[in-house]
Amino acid sequence: GRSAKAAVPALEGLARGPDRDLSGRAVAALGRIGGAESAHVLAGLLRSERGEMRFRASRGLARLDREHSLAPLLEEATGDGPGRPEALRALGDLYRPIPLLRDRGEVPRGVREVLFTGLADSDPEIVGAAVFLAGSIREEKAMPHIVKVLKGDGQPALRALAATALGWMGRKRACGDLIDAMADPAEGVRAAAALSTGSLRCRGAGPMLLALLEEKLDGAAGNAAWAIGRIGYRPATKALRKGLAGGNASSRANAALALAELGDSRGAALIRRRVGQEKSPVVKTALVDALGRLGGAASLPLLRRLEASADCRVVRNVAFLGPDGLQNAL
User: For position 326, what pLDDT does the model report?
Assistant: First the structure.
């Protein structure tokens, strides 16, 4: 309303002030208020010499409607100012589809132009931002550029981002390059590649995913377990059972869910025993989810006890027990 828009000048002053906490709150408020006035202020903040200011301003612009945010983001992404990487990433957020909330819509020609200009830049930060944008808008013509980044000798974070972007794009022809990337010397790249092979359901990824799972590295193992469940790679069942009691929370949770995806009845008995030993609430929830999906009368008493203990998260799992289990529960 008018009162909110009238506060824009005061918020700009706070945003540019020395107090970092107040500055962050002011930038966030500008993003919520929206409109042309807020977009103008956020565009100015995007040129700040302060990195955290540029990041917050770009996030604020990405939350605005495209009518007001597209022009200033394109202007910054086209220039050579300090806010160019943040502008490219914000364009990716602006046009990334969000299920049930926002369709991607038609991506303007100008967005694609700054994308390919960024991919050809010599600055790794610009290239990384352009890779993020390409994955966000699923620009298929950018795939050869992204594969080149993935196979290049850039920083591991950049190669990992390339692997992630290929997964976002949803094109199975990237599977071969992603499987190769699971042999990258950097764990972060291997972990990102594993996640993307699961997103794309790359059928040939099973042996490499199993190898990552058996390495028991925190990030890579958790992602590998999730991907194994997605592609249905049954030879990994034994390793997944072992993973229920080892590794970090992510690997334990994803091992349980993968066993459920594979329909491993033997794994159900191991999961039931693990529920009482698990300390992490997140992993325990995954264990209960897995039991619900696996079904079977043997799991029903445990689920009912958990329900009686006021753990409301297990109520929905009764529906996974199948007709007989549901009838007994009722």
Answer: 29
Which phi and psi angles does 102 have, rounded to 5°?
-155, 130
> Rounded to whole angstroms, how far apart are CA atoms 94 and 110?
14
Task: Please tell me the predicted confidence (pLDDT) of residue 329.
Answer: 37
The b-or-e profile of 258-288 (16+ CB within 10 A means b, else e) is bbbbbebeebbebbbebbeebeeeebbbbbb
pTM for this predicted structure: 0.83
Q: 58 CB contacts (<8 Å, ≥6 apart)? A: 46, 73, 83, 86, 87, 89, 90
pLDDT at residue 325 in the model: 36
- Strand-pairing partners, residue 98, are 102
Return the axis-axis angle of helices 156-169 and 187-200, rounded to nearest 10°: 0
- Better-scored residue on pLDDT, 320 or 37: 37
